[in-house]
Design goal:
Blueprint: H1 9-12, H2 42-47, H3 75-88
């Protein structure tokens, strides 16, 4: 998260769509984004529902790559499309409850 200048993911992001196929952090729902402040905190955030569809920072509300069979080459485009649907409020049953990120109107 440091590369794009995100310092507080929970406040600055509406949702996260992370590449969760072969990523070393695939078992962390925050996808290694540092959205869980403090070392060893991610497990508590999982239990508290922080990354759930209706949580503070929804992560992969569509089920992630594994739910789509990870279509090689098309996965990035599908993830962008999912973000577009989510931000427009058109994701249907997958719609995450989110608020406008900091700085959005």
């Amino acid at each position: 998260m440091h590369r794009p200048g995100i310092t507080d993911p929970r406040r600055q992001l509406a949702l996260a769509e992370v590449h969760d196929c072969l990523h070393p952090d695939r078992d962390r729902p925050d996808g290694g984004t540092s959205a869980s402040p403090g070392a060893g905190r991610a497990w508590r955030d999982i239990l508290d529902g922080v990354y759930d569809r209706d949580g503070e920072l929804p992560v992969n509300p569509d089920g992630g790559l594994k739910s789509f069979g990870h279509p090689v080459g098309a996965s990035g485009l599908r993830m962008i499309y999912e973000c577009w649907l989510q931000l427009r409020g058109e994701a249907g049953a997958r719609q995450a409850r989110h608020r406008a990120p900091a700085g959005w109107r």
